[in-house]
TrEMBL record:
Cupin type-2 domain: residues covered: 51-116
Organism lineage string: Bacteria, Pseudomonadati, Bacteroidota, Bacteroidia, Bacteroidales
Classification via InterPro entries: Cupin_2 (IPR013096), RmlC-like_jellyroll (IPR014710), RmlC_Cupin_sf (IPR011051)
Pfam families according to UniProt: Cupin_2 (PF07883)
The organism of origin for this protein: Williamwhitmania taraxaci
The protein's name in its UniProt record: Cupin domain-containing protein
């Protein structure tokens, strides 16, 4: 559900609905055991907010689309069959379609990540 922040704004005599917002607390939950929320979805892109608590893991899996992870907060590991990297706040990581990956929170606090799926 989107909420229009400037609904019915008028520019040059016509109505504009140009901003849509979504609150984390009310965003649709993803269908697995991690606190994940669907913040945006379109035919070409989806943005998921992930909040992994201490020790939580998203097990090795792959997707038929590219994914870009932006680390908002915390520390973790992103692992593929060939590589393992430690991630921290303000890092951006791209994983190609079909590449298996695992995400693990290794910090004492939450690992908060934006996952941008590019279809």
């Amino acid at each position: 559900m989107y909420f229009h922040t400037k609904a019915n704004a008028v520019q040059s005599g016509r109505k504009l609905d140009f901003m849509r917002t979504k609150l984390l607390e009310t965003a649709e939950k993803v269908g697995f055991n991690i606190d994940g929320r669907k913040m945006y979805s379109s035919p070409k892109t989806e943005i998921i907010h992930l909040d992994l608590k201490f020790g939580e893991v998203i097990e090795m899996h792959s997707n038929p689309f590219d994914v870009v992870f932006y680390i908002l907060e915390g520390a973790g590991i992103i692992e593929t069959p060939d590589e393992q990297i430690t991630v921290e706040q303000d890092m951006c990581i791209e994983i190609s379609a079909a590449e298996p990956r695992l995400i693990r929170n290794i910090g004492a606090d939450s690992l908060r990540v934006l996952a941008v799926k590019i279809f």
